[in-house]
Amino acid sequence: xxxxxxxxxxxxxxxxxxxxxxxxxxxxxxxxxxxxxxxxxxxxxxxxxxxxxxxxxxxxxxxxxxxxxxxxxxxxxxxxxxxxxxxxxxxxxxxxxxxxxxxxxxxxxxxxxxxxxxxxxxxxxxxxxxxxxxxxxxxxxxxxxxxxxxxxxxxxxxxxxxxxxxxxxxxxxxxxxxxxxxxxxxxxxxxxxxxxxxxxxxxxxxxxxxxxxxxxxxxxxxxxxxxxxxxxxxxxxxxxxxxxxxxxxxxxxxxxxxxxx
Length: 261
Ligand SMILES: [Fe+2]
Ligand SMILES: [Fe+2]
Description:
By secondary structure, the chain is α/β, with parallel strands linked by helices. It has one domain (2-258): Purple Acid Phosphatase, chain A, domain 2, CATH 3.60.21. It is 26% helix and 27% strand. The chain has helices at residues 11-29, 49-57, 75-81, 128-139, 155-165, 211-220; strands at residues 2-6, 8-9, 31-37, 62-64, 100-104, 110-117, 146-151, 171-175, 185-186, 192-194, 199-202, 233-242, 249-258. Strands 1, 2, 3, 4, 11, 12 and 13 form a 7-stranded mixed β-sheet that branches. Strands 5-6-7-8-10-9 form a 6-stranded mixed β-sheet, covered by helices on one side. A hairpin with a 5-residue loop joins strand 9 and strand 10 (192-194). It binds fe (ii) ion (2 copies).
């Protein structure tokens, strides 16, 4: 089966990209299941219930997240009742929401999704390696197809997780840096891997924000407000071909689609 994984959707431009490009990609790549990181959909930071529903309305089956998930308080009740919106599984167990889920595709295939986050140059959370393996154990009796979103800053931590879980899951896809990496591969035991799927949003920017404001911040070291950028809207992600019987990956392909403006 072909699965589309969409890198961090940023603000209204990102939502416009998924709204307009998903139907095209779905048809061309024969996509049966869509996972997207949605931690930045609300004005570049966080996600609200109406925006999560909007993304589900565009055909996204599971929304993953990361460090920006708690930015909008409105999401706290929603995330407790909707198992298609995930937060990292290695957050403290007392935090609301779920870190993994199993959702059925259009054609009736169960797809497991696990959301993890890194600890290098990020908040101190539980070990993504230990919790990742525990989550795989929980899901593996329900489905062979398991996709992990590893939301992390350091490529080393993402690459290491790839080696650690190779053969136990179908794919490990990195998110969070908003910059797509060119290291997509199938690991020796059949797990697809990429350090970062990239960003879906405005590329005339610094990872989604107005470049002038980011430059002022870097040059002056003074606090500044970061607003959403607008131009050069693109959708970045990967298309995975997963063998339904074994759960192993046949291929992983990077995509970068430009929105005609
Ligand atoms: Fe992000
Ligand atoms: Fe993030």
